[in-house]
Amino acid sequence: MTTFLGSAxxxxxxxxxxxxxxxxxxxxxxxWGLSVVGMAESASRAFGVSFATxxxxxxxxxxxxxxxxxxxxxxxxxxxDAVADQLEPLEALLDALPTDxxxxxxxxxxxxxLFACERTVAVxxxxxxxxxxxxxxxxxTADYLGGCxxxxxxxxxxxxxxxxxxxxxxxxxxxxxxxxxDLLDVCKLESxxxxxxxxxxxWSAVRSPNDSAVLDDGSVIFSRADxxxxxxxxxxxxxxxxxxxxxxxxxxxxxxxxxxxxxxxGVKRLLVEDAYRRFFTTTLDNFxxxxxxxxxxTGLRRDEVPGRPLRGAARPDHVDANGFRHFTAARSSxxxxxxxxxxxxxxxxxx
Length: 351
Fold this sequence. Notes:
The chain has 7 helices and 10 strands. It is of the alpha+beta class.
């Protein structure tokens, strides 16, 4: 039963997400219809209790073509190079913080979250970086749905060293969608630096087309460990995402600490840290999956979206750039059902 609830929660979200772009009622349904299940699931995990083990049905979320959303002519190389430099003080601050029981570092600052985590994998460094392209680090994060990337400059070896990227992902935490949160849509400038022992992608958000992010800066580092016998992955972020109006009105920052448990943080902090813990654990898993050549992608390309086939044609002949499926016409004296809904004023026709 609990597995069913977890799967139903995310399957319904995936279905409603596609419908939400079509009418306000569908969007409202997505935002509110399953809030109880979503809140209960995430809150229970934050307090160390998991009642749903079903996997997310995120693979059902489809995203169409996306533009970059930035005017590249407005930025020069110094803007990209400044990204890594401006992150250095924050990274030094994070490195000085103690780790929690999961090896993660935290600092909450006026609605923003400074966060760091790392993992050392038993894979030789040179082999790891040959299979996992650091320039694709954002696309390997958890709940990534799609976006657009524009390489700006390359080094002598043809590797990207500066790029602009627009990334679209599920709301974080996911259950915020049921309170009206939109997808995370962020345009970034990215700088990539490589040495003999490290590779680092640093990013800084310069625009959020739907105002879903206030801050989204950070870095991903691959570094040589144990003389190159292993690889260390380090992620540092400084983020603040826009809360839905209803949660801003609730002012979760003012909610008290958990009663009866001395030394515990407030409810919002528990929920935020649980969401970060799960998100970045999955992201680190995705880096390993990429090295191993396993599927890690969330969502479907437009030409992969499953649909109801026409009678007599199980598969389309081809799918065009706009996502329309084309079938070979089949002549028959019987009525043929089409995949296009007829208008209420249109009389059915017989072929």
